[in-house]
Amino acid sequence: MTGNDRDEDFTAYVSAKLAWLRQVALVLCGDWHRADDLTQTTITRLYTHWPRVSRMDNPDGYLRTMLVNAFLKEQRSISRWRFMRTAEDWAAPQFDVEAGLDLRRALAAVPPRQRATVVLRFYEDLTVEQTAEALNCSTGTVKSQTARGLEALRRVLEPRSPAMAEGGAGQ
Fold first, then answer.
1. Alpha-carbon span 135 to 137, nearest angstrom
2. Domain that holds residue 109
3. I need a surface site. Which of 8, 28, 100, 134 has the fewest CB within 10 A?
């Protein structure tokens, strides 16, 4: 394969997968700007491995794993301080903005590994085995991280009564 053929093949693949990759990145990190950065990082890394990846049976799975690994690496290195974005920054055209904001805020409160597991299982609709492969862990770890992630989401999304929000249980 010549250099031009390699680049054309890579460009065609990335063009077909870009919207999907960016959407998964958004669900993982909850911010369009960071999603774009994660997407770009993943595409750059994919290019360096393209000769091998292009011959794989499942290049999409490899690409997904690269994205999740880039997200987890970023989570380890960024500050814990988060700035809230405007609704325009968070909104995705196919989402109800309010529901999307609630879900993204809830996902942001879930630890990164649990968040990645929940996103892969329920947003990407991967099986336990596929998720374990993407995260390079056991199926048992996927199951426990999924359970913990869902419980964390439930706690964040659980509606609180006004009495509970004010700190009193039965005033």
1. 6
2. 3-159
3. 8
